[in-house]
Amino acid sequence: MASTVGSLGAAEAVLTPFAVAFTRPSPERLDVTIHPDNLLTAIRALVDESWGYLSAIIGIDRPAQPPAEGELQAEGAVEVLYLFCSGAAVVTLRINLPYSQAVIPTISGIAPTAMLYEWELREMLGVDVVGLRVTGHLILADEWPEGVYPLRKSFTGFNQAATVVKGA
Amino acid sequence: MNLPLHPILVLLIFPGGLFLIASGLVYQWADRKLVARFQNRIGPRFIQPLADTIKLLAKEEIMPEGVHKGLFITLPIIALAAALTAGLYVPLFGFQPASSFRGDLILALYALSVLTLAMGLAGANTISSFSLVGATRTLTQLFSYEAPFLLSLLGPAIAAGTWQISEINTYAGQNLWLMIAQPIGFVVAMVGLMGKLELPPFDAPEAETEIVAGAMTEYSGRGYALFRLGKDVELVIGLTLVSAFYLGGLGNPLEFVIKTLALLLVLALLQTAFARLRIDQTVGLWWRAGALLAIIQLIAIVLGRNLGSIF
Amino acid sequence: MTTDTNKFVIPIGPQHPALKEPANFEFWVDGEIVTGASVRLGYVHRGIEKGAEARTWTQNLYLMERICGICSHVHATAYTLGVEKLAGVAAPPRANAIRQLMGELERIHSHMLWLGVAAHEGGFDSLFMYSWRDRETVMDLLEKISGNKVHYSANLLGGVKFDITPELAAEIHKGLDFLEERNKFYLKVITTDETFIGRTRGIGTMTTEKAEFLGAIGPTARASGIARDIRVDAPYLIYDQFPVKVMTHTSGDLHGRFIVRINETFESIRVIREILDHLPGGELTTRVPRRIPAGEAVSRVEAPRGELLYFVASNGSEKPERVKVRTPSLCNWSTVLSLAIGLKLADMPMLLSGIDPCFSCNDRSVGLKSANQDPQIWSWEKLRQYGIEYYR
């Protein structure tokens, strides 16, 4: 476990200039919230340091809560998590993207494996990935309608009651 | 043994025509069954090849887009006809060939090549990429195994001093088995036969995991059935030729059955023992090893004959 | 991934004899030489991640197991470990030991399945038939433990369903002896058969640096000399008490991938024996609350194909907020696309199967209806015998 602590410390040192906040959800994890503008530089810093490898890119839809009386409807957001692993250590880079600014730069130039995850992110959650060379659908059907993102919470299937699990 | 039959019967029913096709199906079954047993599978039932053929003949033949219609229809017929023609010159079932003349060995071999050529053309006739790659490989393989296979059958011909199949057969029956006298030639002939029949490990032209069914991919129904029958007939003729030349000749039906089945057993064993060769490996093997070995054997035979006449 | 209409394209898939599951690969060839490649996935996308958000924590366990028919246990294990982490409970040691034991049995089954498939892609059908015949042994063992050959459903949130009795342990020992002997034979075959070596040695060679750059994982990476194995790097279950050795190979080619996987099978056999001999006592299950406290958990396990990552987020309700599954096959696609260029078309099926993409697994039926519509339950033995008789 000593090496895990050590590598998390090293990652923390690399990421400190970009971090908005650090948390340690569990002993082997380091959670770093960063600003979307710093994403590329932060990831490049990790890669330049040869810190671990990109393990996954995870998108989570965080829709806004229904507004209280008299308040304006807040905007929902997509949270994007970049998971880097090194041994047992897991570093999460977390960025928060409001629906209206759901744009990230591609990191596939730095980490080629990111291509498929970014493609999926664009397709399933509607995050625009700037610079991603691929076009078209990766997993959804060719005739899938534009602007419908299945992993958004607002998507509950076509012509079906909201409670029914997406079947089509 | 001579057959006291009318030439038309000989041509259509026995031993050519129907009987040849029927025995082709039987040998196909025997081959599949043996391979299956070697691989610890159960294998097809006896009736399976016939059932397959009837099913294919009854099925709709789909004409793909972009083919030359005339060629698409006639190529399977040419293929089967070529294989059946070759059957007239070989001592099928141990009987004297139905037809025979000086140099019929060359004719029989080239009739068999016409079959392969027809398959290659059939593949090249379509616009399917699997078929085109398959056709290229079929023809590439044709050019690589043909020379060594021919050379390996030339050995017995030179030893017998004739290019007539029936006479070589008689010579082989009266002398020491050529398999022992010309072992290199026998090995080359066996492996050459496998290449000719596109059996594993030389099945790159129809490697299903790469190009589906190779040149045959676009064929269905009747055309496919005819090509398959042609291949089955080729199997019987190939086995007959090699066993007539190298296994001490074929004098009667019993000898024919025993010798060809023994040869088939070896073929089936070889089929199961290897991984598929890539087409470049096949070509390399044939030209570097096959042709060279066959030439060495030939030189040895010629030297042996000439030295024998000197002393 | 550029497109050029003048290229001669060989499509492999969605329906193709080389693929047991739909995917589409396009190889641009110049004669027999591959000059480019592209991939299109998702023909059988089932929306499981979305579906998980509409199901309870327990229901999801069975859903996750159905992601893959070959490595069903490892998916369920990864999910359970993630949920247990969130709930703050730990499964009893005996349950973890049984999970690990089944996981390793599954690895044997998966590697033998792969050996057969890869051999078939290379046109070596005898090896295919033999390895699949012997693989039945390990599947029978799994069936004896759980009653199922494919989806074992051994995991529960907080434990396992099935116990290993001493009689069962003896049977597993017997099966393992047989499997070890067979795999020694296969190792001998793949290292001595000339045609097989001709098809695998020096094909698709990937250097350590390239594997690292392309993000290869699992046996594919280990065959290129990257000693990365979650079982060792971040021990889960009781891999800290029953450790495994990381099997690596330095050649980086297809041949190395065969050797690594067979060596891993030996290692699995060794670990299973050890677990069977020192099976911890105690309970099989512990209580897990119906509502999982809010939070996020990352759970990583080593599936037969490489690192499997589950990200589980809870919002404190009965259903997960988000379950993200990062399967190992996904990481290795880029290695195929980049290694393909310059190789022969004939090498493509083997190269594809070399990373062991998750192909569908065989299934079986237990209920058949006879002509008079009486449901008739057939035992596995009877069904198998019926099949053998039918085709004889």
Query: What is the tally of helical segments of chain B?
Result: 13
| General shape of chain A | globular
Strand coverage percent of chain B: under 5%
Secondary-structure element sequence of chain B? Answer: HHHHHHHHHHHHH
Sketch the topology of chain A as an H/E string, one letter per element. Answer: HEEHEEEEHE
**Which parts of chain B are unreliable, with pLDDT below 50 for 5 consecutive residues or more?**
none
3D architecture notes:
The complex is a heterotrimer of chains A (168), B (311) and C (392). By secondary structure, chain A is an alpha/beta fold. Chain A is 21% helix and 28% strand. In chain A, the strands form 2 sheets. Chain A has a 5-stranded mixed β-sheet. The longest helix of chain A has 14 residues. The C terminus of chain A is likely disordered. Chain B is 72% helix and 0% strand. The model of chain B has no long low-confidence stretch (mean pLDDT 82). With 392 residues, chain C is an alpha+beta fold. Chain C is 48% helix and 14% strand. Chain C contains 14 helices and 10 strands. Chain C is globular and about 60 Å long. Chains in contact: A-C, B-C. Chains B and C meet through helix 6, helix 10 and helix 13 of B and strand 1, helix 4, helix 5 and helix 7 of C.
Helix and strand topology:
The complex is a heterotrimer of chains A (about 170), B (about 300) and C (about 400).
Chain A: H1 2-15, E1 19-23, E2 29-34, H2 39-48, E3 53-62, E4 77-86, E5 89-98, E6 103-105, H3 114-125, E7 128-130
Parallel strand pairs in A: 2-5, 6-7
Antiparallel strand pairs in A: 1-2, 3-4, 4-5
Chain B: H1 7-12, H2 17-38, H3 48-58, H4 69-87, H5 104-125, H6 129-160, H7 165-174, H8 178-181, H9 183-196, H10 208-211, H11 221-246, H12 253-273, H13 279-310
Chain C: E1 8-12, E2 24-30, E3 33-40, H1 48-52, H2 57-65, H3 72-87, H4 93-121, H5 125-146, E4 155-156, E5 159-160, H6 166-192, H7 194-200, H8 208-214, H9 218-222, H10 230-233, H11 254-277, E6 295-303, E7 306-314, E8 320-326, H12 328-340, H13 348-354, E9 367-369, E10 375-377, H14 380-391
Antiparallel strand pairs in C: 1-2, 2-3, 4-5, 6-7, 7-8, 9-10
Keywords, separated by commas or semicolons:
heterotrimer, A: about 170 residues, alpha/beta, Beta Polymerase, domain 2, two-stranded parallel sheet, 7 strands, disordered C terminus, C: about 400 residues, alpha+beta, Cytochrome-c3 Hydrogenase, chain B, 3-stranded antiparallel beta sheet
